[in-house]
Specification:
The protein is α/β, with parallel strands linked by helices and 272 residues long. The chain is built from 11 helices and 6 strands. Strands 1, 2, 3, 4, 5 and 6 form a 6-stranded mixed sheet that branches. The model has no long low-confidence stretch (mean pLDDT 88).
Amino acid sequence: MPRSTYYYTQSHERRKFDDDQIIQAIDEIRQKDPKYTKKYGYRRLTNALHDLGFKVNHKRVLRIMQEHGWLCHAFNRQTKKYNSYKGLVGKIAANRLKRRFKTDRPYQKLVADVSEFRYGNMGMNERVYLEPVLDLFSGEILAFNISEHPTVKFAIKPLKEALEKLPKLNYRTTVHTDQGFQYQHRHWQQVLKQHHAYQSMSRKATCLDNAAMESFFHIMKAEMMDEHFEDKASLIQAMTEWIGFYNNRRIKTKLNGKSPVKYRELAVQRAA
């Protein structure tokens, strides 16, 4: 046996675990929150296994998932996007964010948008609207509102909730949106001024300028809207429960396998 092969085998800790152990651990992870965790991809499952003490490569996890038919295809679906742009009905703000979605401090860059969710019988679909306010530092949803009508008052409610619960900061917060009529309205802009927050807007017909928010809606609809909801109450309950799961228990690869809330809490602890 070559010397290098011997030492590789000795030092490679993943050899301590056979496939049966990993399969059992993956099955337990998938059953923890079965409504949602069964939609985990191999990267997030690898992070979850690392948290359980398994030193395993993501390629090995991918192979096991392929063999057992555990790969999720929900994210392949295309969803219809709600468009709140009604032309020039107020003041357009400059694009301060300019697709710089990364930040090293919480509450510095917030994004918001509106999307629609449908329920009821086919052909007679009713809908509700969701507006979340998302912190780009961790992806955490700081506040959200659900309503049958996407009015200016509906949009302002979660904005106020998010800004009013921010801790004292030594920097100003920027709130980025598209050019929807709600965000052009003077009442939205007055709330930002009252809380000394900057306003930023995407360019017209440029959805990539708010790609972080679009990505959140895509994830939410892929993981939650794979079932049909007959009435408004059941849909709103499912939306609220999923956002709670997303904030507190849904791990993210780019957050080192932590949930948004856990990632933010650890960052605050390190900074203290």
